[in-house]
Write a structure and sequence with these properties.
mainly alpha, 2 domains, 5 helices
Length: 129
């Protein structure tokens, strides 16, 4: 039983990486569904397809277009994706600040070791001071 559970966990863990629940009212659900329909119609119209086009049809004209099958699908692929992409930018900025601070705090031997890892000569300026 434990082996089966472990194998199941290993094979399904990426799917279970993050599950979030947002509680909405019936009125909010209605508005979200209306927005999904509006967005899908506009996307279909943007590539001269019928208002009820499918994602496959839209992507056949322009790869990368999104047609949402449900409000959950729209939330996942727009709101959540965009939000997480913005977080990635913030993380990258934070990492650069921390890397620069660490660089300044290093002695020359440590800096030269980093330079070597980056295939740069000793005395390189991996991060500006």
């Amino acid at each position: 039983m434990k082996k089966f559970f472990l194998l199941t966990f290993l094979f399904t863990s990426p799917v279970l990486a993050g599950t979030y629940t947002v509680t909405t009212t019936t009125a909010q659900d209605t508005r979200a569904e209306r927005q999904r329909v509006r967005v899908n119609k506009a996307t279909c119209a943007s590539v001269s397809l019928p208002a009820s086009c499918t994602q496959a049809q839209a992507r056949a004209v322009t790869p990368g277009l999104d047609i949402y099958s449900s409000v959950q699908d729209m939330v996942d692929r727009t709101l959540l994706r965009d939000w997480l992409n913005n977080l990635k930018s913030a993380d990258t900025s934070d990492d650069a600040i921390q890397a620069q601070a660490a660089w300044v705090a290093m002695n020359d031997t440590q800096k030269n070791a980093v330079c070597a890892l980056l295939s740069l000569p000793n005395g390189c300026e991996a991060w500006s001071r």
